[in-house]
Design goal:
By secondary structure, the chain is of the alpha+beta class. It has one domain (about 1-45). The protein contains one helix and three strands, in the order ββαβ. The protein has one helix at about 30-35, and strands spanning about 15-20, 25-30, 40. A three-stranded antiparallel sheet has the order 2-1-3, covered by helices on one side. Strand 1 and strand 2 (about 25-30) form a beta hairpin. It is globular. The termini are far apart. The relative contact order is 0.24. The structure holds zinc ion (ZN). Zinc ion binds near residues 5 and 7.
Length: about 50
Amino acid sequence: MNIKCSICGKEDSLFRANHRDLGAIKLCAGCWSKEHSKEKLLPLEDKGSCCR
Ligand SMILES: [Zn+2]
């Protein structure tokens, strides 16, 4: 299965991200830091979903 960066389409080692505009996506390292520096990435909430 080919997973590609949601922004540039590159197949690379991808990071899960919670993007302000795009939702839950995968990003390559380059796009991750680019989006992160634009403050487009929200913290991932990965640990269970107790009590919500
Ligand atoms: Zn990318």
